[in-house]
Amino acid sequence: MDSLTPVTLSKTEALAARYGTAEIPPAGPWNPIIASLLDHRSVRGYRPDAPPEGTLETLVAAASSAATSSNLQTWSVISVRDPAKLAVLAEIAGGQKHIQQCPIFLVWLADVSRNERLGQDEGTVLEGMPYLETFLVAAIDAALASQNAVVAAESLGLSTVYIGALRNDVVRVAETLGLPPGVVGVFGLCVGYAADAAKAEVKPRLPQATVLHHDTYDHGAEPAQRAAYDVLMNDFSRRNEMAADTWTARVINRIGTMKALRGRDRLSAAIRSLGFPLR
Amino acid sequence: MDSLTPVTLSKTEALAARYGTAEIPPAGPWNPIIASLLDHRSVRGYRPDAPPEGTLETLVAAASSAATSSNLQTWSVISVRDPAKLAVLAEIAGGQKHIQQCPIFLVWLADVSRNERLGQDEGTVLEGMPYLETFLVAAIDAALASQNAVVAAESLGLSTVYIGALRNDVVRVAETLGLPPGVVGVFGLCVGYAADAAKAEVKPRLPQATVLHHDTYDHGAEPAQRAAYDVLMNDFSRRNEMAADTWTARVINRIGTMKALRGRDRLSAAIRSLGFPLR
């Protein structure tokens, strides 16, 4: 058995990096898997070298091991290597070059078409199909599967980045990959070895007290927590050569305007046109 | 650093268990993290003993380390210990006793309310809020976070099971947990030590060739693959003291009728009523 790519930070150091501050939550048990999870960062630049033979199959076996609602397994994944298709996908994603650069590019699919075919073959109408619930189950199945693939990849010293921008035009994604009705690409995933310049610091997250509630949702302390997090994120972005900016400013920039949605205001209509009534 | 809970199967054994057959995919690299991922099984019976102090905080730190779309962090999680609330949640989920039995029960939230409050505090209308895209991002954020928590829990020798049945009545879940508008419970998660009788075999999944496509979606071999998987699943369910049944029969049973949806045909209206226009 290959060894884990070691994470050398202590528990306290890893938590301080993840939360960007010495004020860390009182975490308990710890082990190399948890250390690897805490060490995640998204990487947007890749070396050309391919990972070992069978890496794709290892990642998909990990993905298939995730929970899936009622064992319906309403997800699939496409490994894209065709340069022409990668170019189209990169264009849909607003010119993200790493889609063409990484040695493994995966498109994760919410896929109820398998059930549709099963129903047709068995001569049964599946009454549950046209509902939002069924699409949501498929999207969540795809997310649980892909996250297992991410964890597996990072444990092997590979880096990853999710490409939500495929949702800028899910109809063109479907055309490019020959998707039948009842299948939608919910996001992409780059996998490969990080280019040296591309591996930034671990990005600090909101304090645990902001996202973890006990018995009842309570956001009373949120304004102070957000102000402190804005300072952390401003410092983080300056250190990592992005424009210095607070979290508040980035949130407003990302969802403040219709332009920033990059066409995703049409996602509902597009998903319906791909065979999900979303009733 | 605590050690991993060891998984003793070899790569070949683990893949054979996961796919329920000796016809396994040509997986390559392997390590203890991947072995732990492959060993997943959902557990519906728990011992009463609590995990070590700080386990909840460790799991949430792992969750916060997952990727999140544009760092929006549109998820939250509620740890529920109040017996009265656990009883209501178990009832919503159709009487799943393990919700009241497990020492850690989490409700994972698609949460755009934090952004709503941010926009209000800053005097800015966030134009991207009312779209299906924004809800979908939040649901996927919650799924990526929760799957990291699952991986962390299982690495510590704990077992888990997702509770999608909270979606039977998301409005009552919101009332029970005091959720503000813009927050919906997308699923629950039990965490704890498996009762001896509750730890079944690893459940076989569809063949890798069924879910993994190359450049183009291709389901030509699916009928034969499904027939073979039906045999495997029939055997698996007989061995594990469920009613013997094929995968095909279980899919039809789960989504074939309106009754089987258990109210989730109203999910779209319910989520809208909780403050997501889903435009």
Automatic annotation (TrEMBL), chains A, B:
Superkingdom in the source lineage: Bacteria
Signal peptide region: none
Native source species: Paeniroseomonas aquatica
Transmembrane regions: none
Sequence similarity: Belongs to the flavin oxidoreductase frp family.
Keyword match Signal: no
Keywords: Flavoprotein, FMN, NADP, Oxidoreductase
Gene3D superfamilies: NADH Oxidase (3.40.109.10)
Keyword Chloroplast assigned: no
Protein name, per record: NADPH-dependent oxidoreductase
InterPro entries: Flavin_OxRdtase_Frp (IPR016446), Nitroreductase (IPR029479), Nitroreductase-like (IPR000415)
Domain (Nitroreductase): residue spans on this chain: 39-193
